[in-house]
């Protein structure tokens, strides 16, 4: 418990005069207790004792609250599968000084995207409060294909970490690009596309979008899904 010291500021002489009690708690903090009338030495001592007990109880409550807060795992505050989703939490990150916003994203966080896949969450608006760019990991099992979609006003760059994968694109998905491990593919904004793993083995993408979230601006094109299925 912190040391508490009291300084009496007498307005006159004698124990019957009114007096102010200045309470100093810890270092630098000070508060003035309202003026009280001292009736006797014993009454004054009792009041001092009750004030000390009350302030000690308040301090204990503050300490217990601080300890409970520190015990909360950082990854679980406002999170889904480890990813931040609370608007308030994102706002706190985005308004912090730039040097305080540096984050390391550990593997193991995931989310299900509108494209039809479970992604490994990387740096994005949901995890670090990114505003203009995001990067996530897309593992694709053999035979998997995305729902046909485009990103309104958002560019995409994807790097194939392993395996190989076909990417169909165009207004009618009339074009096909074959991407192999080590290759990158750039897809301009508003271009319909769908990666399809036709290789017979898993592949893994590292996907970057020019937006804080890869779920931003997604437009699904279910009418073109049948085109992929027929191939």
Our estimate of the beta-strand percent is 35-45%
Summed up, the domain count is 2
Mean pLDDT: 76
Class of secondary structure makeup? alpha+beta
CA-based gyration radius: 31 Å
- Show unreliable segments: 1-39, 65-80
Percentage of residues in helical conformation: 10-25%
CATH architecture of the largest domain: Sandwich
* Level-1 CATH class name of the largest domain: Mainly Beta
Number of strands: 16
What name does CATH use for the topology of the largest domain? Jelly Rolls
Biggest sheet character: 4 strands, antiparallel
Task: State the order of secondary-structure elements, H for helix, E for strand.
Answer: EEEHEEHEEHEEEEEEEEEH
What's the end-to-end separation, in Å?
74 Å
Taken from the alpha-carbon principal axes, the silhouette is: elongated
Order of the strands making up the biggest sheet: 8-15-10-13
Fourth-tier CATH superfamily name of the largest domain: Jelly Rolls
The number of distinct helices, counting runs of at least 4 residues, comes to: 4
């Amino acid at each position: 418990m912190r040391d508490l010291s009291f300084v009496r500021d007498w307005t006159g002489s004698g124990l019957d005069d009114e007096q102010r009690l200045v309470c100093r708690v810890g270092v630098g903090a000070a508060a003035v207790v309202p003026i009280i009338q001292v009736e006797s030495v014993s009454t004054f001592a009792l009041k001092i004792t009750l004030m000390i007990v009350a302030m000690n109880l308040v301090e204990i409550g503050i300490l217990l609250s601080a300890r409970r807060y520190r015990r909360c795992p950082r990854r679980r505050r406002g999170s889904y599968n480890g990813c931040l989703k609370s608007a308030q939490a994102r706002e706190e990150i985005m308004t912090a000084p730039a040097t305080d916003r540096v984050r390391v994203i550990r593997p193991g966080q995931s989310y299900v995207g509108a494209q039809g896949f479970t992604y490994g969450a990387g740096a994005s608006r949901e995890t670090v409060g990114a505003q203009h760019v995001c990067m996530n990991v897309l593992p694709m099992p053999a035979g998997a294909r995305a729902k046909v979609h485009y990103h309104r006003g958002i560019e995409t760059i994807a790097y194939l970490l392993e395996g190989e994968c076909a990417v169909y694109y165009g207004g009618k998905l009339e074009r096909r690009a074959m991407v192999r491990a080590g290759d990158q593919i750039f897809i301009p904004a508003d271009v319909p596309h769908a990666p399809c793993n036709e290789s017979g083995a898993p592949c893994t993408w590292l996907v970057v979008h020019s937006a804080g979230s890869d779920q931003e601006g997604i437009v699904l094109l279910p009418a073109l899904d049948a085109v992929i299925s027929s191939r």
